[in-house]
Amino acid sequence: MPAHIEDYALLGNCRSAALVSSDGSLDWLCLPRFDAPAVFAALLGNEENGRWRLAPSDPVIERTRRYLDDTLVLETVWVTASGKARVLDFMPLGDENAVVRIVEGLSGQTTFEMDLVMRFDYGRSVPWVERLDPLTLSAVAGPDRLVLSSTVAPHARDHHTVARVRVGEGERHVFSLRHHPSHLPVPAEQDIDACLKATVDQWQVFAAKCPDVGPYTALVRRSLLVLKAMTYAPTGGIVAAVTTSLPERVGGERNWDYRFCWLRDATMTLLAFMNLGYFEEAQAWREWLLRSVAGNPEQMQIMYGLAGERDLQEYTLPWLAGYEHSQPVRVGNAAAAQTQLDIYGELADAMSQAIRGGLPRHPRSAAISRVIMPYLESIWREPDEGIWEVRGGRQHFVHSKVMAWVAFDRAAELADTTEEDRERGLHYRQVADQIRREVCEQGLDAQGQHFVQAYGSSEMDASLLHIALTGFLPAHDPRFLRTLAQIEKRLLHNGLLLRYDTDSCTDGLTAGEGTFLVCSFWLADVYVLLGRQDEAHALYQRLTDLCNDVGLLAEQYDPVGKRMLGNFPQAFSHIGIINTALNLHRAQCPARVRASA
User: Fold this and answer.
1) How many domains does the chain have?
2) Where is each Trehalase-like N-terminal domain found (predicted)?
3) Among 130, 134, 154, 588, which residue's Cβ finds the most Cβ atoms within 10 Å?
4) Is the peptide bond between 37 and the residue preceding it cis, with omega within 30 degrees of 0?
5) Residue 437 has pLDDT above 90, yes or no
6) Does residue 594 fall inside a structural domain?
7) Do residues 594 and 586 touch, judged by C-beta distance below 8 A?
8) In angstroms, rounded to a whole number, what is the distance separating the alpha carbons of residues 332 and 326?
9) What DSSP line would sit under 262-321, residue for residue?
10) Contact, 475 vs 485, CB < 8 A?
11) Is residue 504 predicted with pLDDT exceeding 80?
């Protein structure tokens, strides 16, 4: 059985990512891209679906781990009765996909065992393994090749590759696993020490650009590293998570593939990068965004592949048992074909924030806007599947209408360069006012007191917090304050927010999931807007205390079972860490810059 989600650490090279558990087992790795079939899929099955374990063979007395300062180089220190040693795990940054594991003796003598189970196609295909030389193995299945190079000779055992090595103080052994197309010659082995130094240097140079954010600096810097690791360097796209099918309820069916790029992440990602001075990353993300959405506005999707691919067909992998038997295991995401009106607001807000943040106007953005805005004007009154991608039928979700308002509001703000643009901007403002009037009439409960999840509904939804966070209404508007009170009353669960109540809402799936972490960050942001700083800080502290020992957060959290749920690590959650920290810091230092959501 795989470890708990929170027991994993992330390795990454801005092309793919690996998850390694606290017991030294690398249980998830997709090559050559985040969305490629996994070569280690034990996370969603068992060791026979692929894994790479490297750990002491003797009973472990103590085990600690950390990332080397401001990097994604993982150090695990193992103490046994006979000695003390450490393992350094990392994925070198560069053009080659590889995972490197270095064992170093610190004191005494420690015996390590390596068990490498190489599988392709999400654990289904056993490769043909052959020895290239005494210390090098090649494993081939179809188009893919893995090459294991080590300083100790491995051998085969029941379709596993195993090795045993004893390290004393000052001794060192290296294991390197590289991925290459099987039709090409095997490249020469890289200098591991040079790779390690270059990787450490590049991560630290990136992290060093992070400005001081008071007491939140370390958390913000770590989350920036996570977001950078989840960026596909060739295109600038950022995946929502590096995993698929980690359950939102253990044993349930709410298991989705998050290895794609969502438009709604764009606004908060751009805000996080730009507000911290990372304009190069923000510009790469904007370029990805504009390439992806180019074309017919009727064909604009809520998410795309790493390079802007549109076909994200969803299917299941029946040979994988699922994480703790949570079925089905899904690849692809059918929600890509949904209609979600909020994406137009997120796209407009992203472009607006980019310009306000100092990025020059992109020549394509104005042209795209002139095509998209008339289309949105023709469809904003229609129902949709909403921000939570429900599979129980379309509704008139209030959040979707609010974000449609955002689209016209931001477009009106930006339409000021020519007389024609100004006339267009006046029209956009009229449409925005029309949307706000309708939402304030039809988006309230039957008594007209507070906003609800959808027209005619009595349900609450954490996304309603964006009524204040987007500026749709002032945070102190009585209707919003009553909405906030209802959210706190009905969706707070052990101090954390559900996104909505799955027991009473019809979303087309079996009820039950954890608290949705980004929603609680939104709640903290609202507290900042309302001047409730102590509550905002306390909630932020509660949320960041949920990070695991190496500073990572999943999508959701079960406050009763006290464990993480959902795909991991989750970009949305780490964006929440960054943006809420900025809002808290600005509120504490108002002379520097006004707090914003």
Assistant:
1) 2
2) 3-142
3) 154
4) no
5) yes
6) no
7) yes
8) 17
9) ETHHHHHHHHHHHHTT-HHHHHHHHHHHHHHH-S-GGG--SEE-TTS------EE-TTS-
10) no
11) no
